[in-house]
Sequence to fold (237 residues):
Amino acid sequence: MPASTFWPEFKTQSGARELDEILDERVFAFPKPTALIQRVIGYCAPPGCLVLDSFAGSGTTGHAVLATNTKDGGNRRFILVEMDDNIARTVTAERVKRVATGYTNSKGNVIEALGGGFQFCRLSPEPLFTAEGQIRPDVRFSQLAEFVWFAETGTGYTGRADSPLLGVHEGRAVYLLYNGILKDKSVSGGNVLTGPVFDVLPVFAGPKVIYAAANRMGARAAREGITFKQTPYALEV
Ligand SMILES: C[S@@+](CC[C@H](N)C(=O)[O-])C[C@H]1O[C@@H](n2cnc3c(N)ncnc32)[C@H](O)[C@@H]1O
Fold:
């Protein structure tokens, strides 16, 4: 006999009905009901906790964390991991986005936002670093740019990665010199921060953090408002 309940009062089908109403389609046969995961969170994830679901699927765990926070103001956070790219985008992220921001369900009812949110990050198919912590030689500028930006700002990179100036975050410009991004106008293909290299970088008047293989600017770096970070060591891999 297939089990008919997850826990006496939580029927196995109730999670599927709930998900159907949120996403308006049948994606999983037996996703857990949000109320079930909320009960588990109530037992073992007090306010402030970081909840990990490394098999995120329908995203019930993210939904349950947001719902529990709404109830008790608990400021829990979550990490959801989903290996199927399509499920990750169209089910996991879509469900959590809808419940966080509010939506109209398949029955036409307006469902109030739970609040909160998340960042969507993609894991790279190959590691960027060798076992010794060096950047792998085939890593492209855009790949390292994403990593540097996240390490520096804690947010996902949305830029085009076509310039050594990756962007400005909270008043500070983030630069990366790597892999010939300066088209070899300069010393060592532009991976080393020197005075002439700095002079060809896009200008930013405020504080700057510059990631490069080495810094040969001497005292001028401080005068220009530069915080230098050496790749790969400053990336703490
Ligand atoms: C049964 S579903 C999870 C259900 C979800 N926790 C819920 O209660 O609604 C399992 C999911 O884990 C994903 N998965 C399986 N192996 C994985 C792995 N090694 N890393 C990340 N996700 C994985 C599958 O693609 C599937 O979407």
Notes: The longest strand covers residues 165-169. The mean pLDDT is 91. Residues 47 and 72 are 8 Å apart (CA to CA). The chain has two domains: 5-111, 141-235.
